[in-house]
Amino acid sequence: MSTRAERTNGRWVLNGRKKWIGKADWADFLIVVAVTDPEKGSRGGMTSFLVDRGTPGVVVERRLPTISNYRPCEVRFDDVQVDDAQVLGDVGQAFIPMQNRLAIRRLEIAARCSGATARLLDMLMAHAKERVTFGEPLASRQTVQNWIADGAMGLHALRLVTMDAARKLDAGQTDIRYESSTAKVLGTELMQRVADQCLQGHGALGLGKDLPIEYYYRLVRIWRIVEGASEIHRVTVARQLLKSGVPW
After folding, report:
1. Domain of life of the organism in this record (predicted)?
2. What ranges make up the beta strands (E) of the chain?
């Protein structure tokens, strides 16, 4: 977090650079988090601003190609001036709302993993019933049966965890870091495994773009990193458990 916002002549002036900013090249406005008090850092020194993309000094330099169709942008801020009315929330208090929004995004990813995993399982089961090798359908192979059973059990657990987190959020619970981290890790790692097995089960068909399997395979590899890598979420879960115990 190196982008700065300094108070000058009654306005805020932003300078810095951001990378991996999704959809910045066509968004009408950006939510920019900048350091307003370097000494306080995340404890009262970060502020959010609403910045119109067409504001002088806002430069979307390029889209960053990735392994999927997800192409975030690199954005530069050169003496970008904004008014007090464009401060989002309170000055210096951007960190907690930012974390809360990330928790919602993690639940969104978990929900998307749930839907994609269900589709992958449907495709695997349909293909396993139709594809015959050495006189027997793939569905008769114990390995394929294990893939299907493990995937279905994992999907059931993922749905329950995601719905539990969403229920707590809807009820007004402000801290769902444990629940959202758990849902995101379970969802992305389950989908990664099922996508790999579905691709393997389809053989050469799984490699081609006639089917969406390879797309899901690449997409979930991104999801295991964006909105916090799985390793970071495990640290978050462990710290909360060590501090407060098991939350039930």
Report:
1. Bacteria
2. 4-8, 11-21, 29-35, 46-52, 58-63, 73-82, 87-88, 132-133, 136-137
Q: What are phi and psi of 8, to 5 degrees?
A: -140, 120
CATH code where residue 59 lies: 2.40.110.10
Q: Summarize the confidence of residues 15-37 as an average pLDDT.
A: 94
For residues 71 and 113, membership in a common domain is answered with no
Which of the residues are catalytic?
227
Residue 45 belongs to what H/E stretch? Answer: none
CA distance 242 to 248: 14
Predicted TM-score (pTM) of the model is: 0.87
Which tokens hold the place of 120?
A: 């992958």
